[in-house]
Amino acid sequence: MAHDLPTAAALGHLPKEEFAKTLGGIYENSIWVAEAAFEAGPFGNLTDIAKAMAAVVASASDEQQLALLNAHPDLAGKAAVAGALTVASTEEQAKAGLDSLTEAEMETFTRLNTEYRAKFGFPFIIAVRNATKRTILGAFEGRINNSIGVEKLQCLAQVDKIAWMRLLNVAKPAPTGFLTCHILDTARGCPAAGLRLTLSRLHDNRSELLGEWVTNSDGRLPGGPALKGETFQAGTYCWNFYAGDYFAANCLPISGQPFLDMIPLHFGIDNPEDHYHVPLLCSPWSFSTYRGS
Amino acid sequence: MAHDLPTAAALGHLPKEEFAKTLGGIYENSIWVAEAAFEAGPFGNLTDIAKAMAAVVASASDEQQLALLNAHPDLAGKAAVAGALTVASTEEQAKAGLDSLTEAEMETFTRLNTEYRAKFGFPFIIAVRNATKRTILGAFEGRINNSIGVEKLQCLAQVDKIAWMRLLNVAKPAPTGFLTCHILDTARGCPAAGLRLTLSRLHDNRSELLGEWVTNSDGRLPGGPALKGETFQAGTYCWNFYAGDYFAANCLPISGQPFLDMIPLHFGIDNPEDHYHVPLLCSPWSFSTYRGS
Amino acid sequence: MAHDLPTAAALGHLPKEEFAKTLGGIYENSIWVAEAAFEAGPFGNLTDIAKAMAAVVASASDEQQLALLNAHPDLAGKAAVAGALTVASTEEQAKAGLDSLTEAEMETFTRLNTEYRAKFGFPFIIAVRNATKRTILGAFEGRINNSIGVEKLQCLAQVDKIAWMRLLNVAKPAPTGFLTCHILDTARGCPAAGLRLTLSRLHDNRSELLGEWVTNSDGRLPGGPALKGETFQAGTYCWNFYAGDYFAANCLPISGQPFLDMIPLHFGIDNPEDHYHVPLLCSPWSFSTYRGS
Amino acid sequence: MAHDLPTAAALGHLPKEEFAKTLGGIYENSIWVAEAAFEAGPFGNLTDIAKAMAAVVASASDEQQLALLNAHPDLAGKAAVAGALTVASTEEQAKAGLDSLTEAEMETFTRLNTEYRAKFGFPFIIAVRNATKRTILGAFEGRINNSIGVEKLQCLAQVDKIAWMRLLNVAKPAPTGFLTCHILDTARGCPAAGLRLTLSRLHDNRSELLGEWVTNSDGRLPGGPALKGETFQAGTYCWNFYAGDYFAANCLPISGQPFLDMIPLHFGIDNPEDHYHVPLLCSPWSFSTYRGS
Fold first, then answer.
1. Cross-strand pairs, A164
2. Residue B186: its chain C contacts at CB < 8 A?
3. C189, B219: Cβ pair inside 8 Å?
4. Contacts of C185 (CB under 8 A, 6+ apart)
5. Cβ atoms within 10 Å of C208's Cβ, excluding its own
6. Per-residue pLDDT tens for C111-136?
7. How many Å apart are CA A175 and CA A185, to the nearest integer?
8. Beta bridge partners of C198
9. What is the DSSP string of D9-23?
10. In D123-133, which positions are buried (b, 16+ CB within 10 angstroms) versus exposed (e)?
């Protein structure tokens, strides 16, 4: 991310006109959302700005909500082909590969766009920044069977997600977020002490090693969070837990070819202002994880 | 694996002398184990042969058990350095990297071997075929604190694991094993239908794609087991579950950067004559797995 | 349940007039739902009847949906006090204790009813048959903060749930449902064989023992489903798993006062035409369950 | 527990003769264990005393260990019938119902005792204070198939458990233990805030309510531990989680008869000097728990 982005605090304290100008495109072609959200400020972080804008949309009239949905382009539609999208939409559709569809894929999109609009009266909307063509087509085919009431809420939720990701592109989040881990040994009912793990960031099919730890006597990382503040960014991450070595060192019965050995765990960080606790509960024959707190 | 290995059935029906000759090295330098196990035959599969041999060891006298343990070489010890190991031991130690230790590592091994023998009266034994230097050193440092009673049982268990892996090297397992999967959606309490997944085999830092499926309405693989019979071999495997696409198609609330998207799951198959059921229970914010049946 | 209720099949094959007459009250004061659903028949079970009626509502116009919601009485409202509810509503509200509110509770309900109607334009609706006053008040206070779009969908979902429970009161379900169990030992990675368990039905603070089993070698109940056909009814059930005895018999390390000993597991059956698989995954220090298939 | 028991600290600082006299019966008829353990003191809590005594046993010679095992009476054996047990053993066997066996049960015990002694050369030992006849018979029949090496370790582990429970009978634990909870919503990936729960103590088929809480915004108990210090005692406890109300208030999709409603969770506290974290991870269709830290 560029280093000259304004901080969340700076953004949250802009005067109304600038606030609206900066955030007017967060909700596609709908500057009224930023204008109305301004009244709930000033804001100390991006999370609160996003919440205020989402609240404006949620409490808008049915007509306003439909207008907002209709301000969005078709995915891989005529506007995209003609180069008539907003800059943000163009980037997002390209990232998901929608600018390089085969002819057959283009036909499928065109057919689905048409059917969808005919049924619902607004375009199919999905946050595509982290999606693939497959994700999008699957969602298209799943959601087209919804009732209008359900699908309108789906689209509004997607619009909020798109807004959040655009917001992260225009300002630096407040440095409040952090990532923690905890490893429990469910075979013995105790913290898994002395278990080695690494953290990597995954992007564009590459893996960048960020750190390596050995858990302390409480099964946690010595030295506090694995990531925090500016190093804690939205993206996809991977813990690698060297569980097989732990089992061997602690005499837990395992087979010669261990059922669980190195356990990779992929997870995504959406809001870098939040605390993400991503623990591992494991025995030699089972494991689980969850977003904790 | 070589195609001219005898089948489990052929091995299990050998006359006594040949049986003992073929399996005499399964338990290091201790042909008496195979000789005594023969009496429980004939055997239809490798699992039963292994059980019979393990039972011989378990019911042997304390002196016999200690003799068996003492028939094993030190890890990275003098015999290894001098090239005086059995062929099987040589291969196993090399696979774990014990033939290329640094000087410092060699010193650590020598010190631990000496301390361990002084405390327990037998050499440190660990099944190393799927282990690394780190695994072995960690186990060494963990187990040296055990009581003699505990540690003797540890070594006997390791000897059984080594025997099993050697057995897989001398015969083809009975084609009774298979691998199944089942995916449950714990956010909605139903099978995860229409979820795409792949299976790969992992070896030597490479990944070989073995198959791709989309789950049926019961959350299972259409067409039965993912692997069975001769294609089902000991080794390390990986399911890749495309959970993010499933959540998007089914309108489960997820963040723009999904917390869980593609879920990789590594697992080991130790006994190719067994059924391995390796399911996934998942919501957008948690997942678990276990060896099922 | 009365034994002279019609079977699902008989109900599903009634001529239109009788079908509508019998099911006209399933959706409160809205016989048009049954009339329109009839066209999707004939039906072999209650699940399909319920789905057909729910589909009619889901695809109805906004006006029809609002009319349906407005056909419902306030909870603990004037109509209830005046004895002017439908028979079904009267019974349902009484079962949840709404006919015996304290004066303070009545005031709270009146205030919430008024605020809710003022915000949404329709009455607060919740399936109360298995709810308590506390459930209802908690839901009232939680849902009143929703947006109209979200809350309308909430009410429509509740109306479908009420309809299902009323349907179970007018016909016998098809005898296709059954209950199964499976117990996995996650400390050892194998089925929990030889584990004793019981099943009870819970109602009105009483517990009725329905059966007792010891798991077979695959960790399942010998003899097939625990309940099936007519004995499998909607309601609340409880497995009691005697896990402590299993751990002791299998030498799993547990403390003198075991962390887990007898594990009770309460679960509800909503649709007696379905398969409910309610397994237990447990080690001496952890357990989990889920609705499986 | 009697209020005039000495504190852990007082016990841990006794002079050697008194220490041995007070703790001489903790290991059945084997005052040498207490005498040798004394040297590792002084002790600040019962956990350290227990560890010191267990370490003495673990490092004792094979002969001493066998003598210790043989200092134990048969369960329901001649000594018990003749009233010749130590006071502690008499109480323990009575609590498990071994003083009121039917004639058939007595015959089974006699047969198993005889077979077991013939195979292993020492009596069957099991910590019976929290066991039933069924627990004991199941363990007897399971463990009699073990090898001698395994079974000797089993008995030594049981002896340590018996010692711990006897120790809790002669002194008040240090007030360092406490009980915490945490509830995570795995359907939404957040703490379960506003979820009501109660804690009860279970004894002799009665349930004593100890407290009631509503979780705070982090899904934890407001006000800190549920139990701590002197109120935190060994025994069996039960959380009741009112999950159904939480799901209803938070619009999580549940069936009319919820699959999960009130979730009871039984757990045992063995060491009142420890921290027990007993969390709940739940969605409307799954839950899990574990001993955490």
1. none
2. 290
3. no
4. C191, C192, C219, C246, C250, C252, C282, C283
5. 11
6. 999 999 999 999 999 997 778 899 99
7. 32
8. C212, C240
9. HHHHT--HHHHHHHH
10. bbbbbbbbbbb
The total of other beta-carbon atoms located within 10 Å of residue A15's CB is 9
Which residues share a beta bridge with B213?
A: B197
| Three-class secondary structure of residue A52 per DSSP | helix
CA distance C293 to chain B (A): 7
Nearest partner of D127 among C256, B201, C254, judged by Cα: C256
- Can you give the pTM of this predicted structure? 0.95
Best of C147, C160, C255 to disrupt the A interface by mutation (most A CBs within 10 Å)? C147
Distance in angstroms (rounded) separating the CA atoms of residues D138 and C249: 5
Structure-block tokens of residue A82: 């003609």
Tokens read off for D148: 């001698």
Is the pLDDT assigned to residue C2 strictly greater than 60? no
Q: Is the peptide bond before C279 cis (omega within 30 degrees of 0)?
A: no
Average pLDDT over residues A141-149: 94
First to last CA, chain B: 27
Q: Is the per-residue pLDDT at B117 higher than 80? A: yes
Residue B85's pLDDT is what? Answer: 84
**D277: enclosing H helix or E strand:** strand D275-277
List C136's β-bridge partners, or say none. Answer: none
Contacts of A147 (CB under 8 A, 6+ apart): C58, C59
Helix (H, G, I), strand (E, B) or coil at A175: coil
Size of interface C-D (CB pairs under 8 A): 158
pLDDT band with cut points at 50, 70 and 90 for residue A12? very high
Pairwise CA distance, residues D157 & D160, whole Å: 5
- Summarised one tens digit per residue, pLDDT across range B136-165 is 999 999 999 999 999 999 999 999 999 999
Interface test with A, best of B144, B197, B212, B259 (most A CBs within 10 A): B259
pLDDT at position C57 is 97
pLDDT at B1: 45
Strand pairing partners for A214? Answer: A196
Residue A245: HSE in the Cβ half-sphere, 13 Å Cα cutoff: 20
Which residues have C-beta within 8 Å of that of residue D45, sequence separation ≥ 6?
Answer: D8, D9, D12, D173, D174, D176, D273
Phi and psi angles of residue C55, each rounded to the nearest 5 degrees, phi first: -65, -35
Contacts of B212 (CB under 8 A, 6+ apart): B196, B197, B198, B199
User: What is the least distance, in Å, from the CA of C150 to any CA of chain A?
Assistant: 7
Q: What share of chain D is helix, strand, coil (3-state, %, to 5)?
A: 40, 20, 40
User: Chain C interface residues facing chain B, Cβ-Cβ under 8 Å?
Assistant: 184, 186, 189-191, 218-219, 281, 288, 290-293
What is the Cα–Cα distance from A182 to B118, expressed in whole angstroms? 37
A149/A156 Cα distance (integer angstroms): 11
Quote the CA–CA distance of A34 and A20 in Å, as a whole number: 5
Average pLDDT in the A118-125 region?
96
Quote the percentage of chain D above a pLDDT of 70.
99
Residue A57, both tokens: 């949309």
Is the predicted pLDDT of residue D256 greater than 60, yes or no? Answer: yes
How many whole angstroms separate alpha carbon B93 and alpha carbon B133? 10
| Angle of helix D148-170 versus helix D16-23 axis, rounded to 10 | 110
> What's the average model confidence in pLDDT over B198-213?
95
Q: What is the ipTM of this complex?
A: 0.95
Single out the residue of C234, C231, C197 nearest to residue C214, CA to CA.
C197
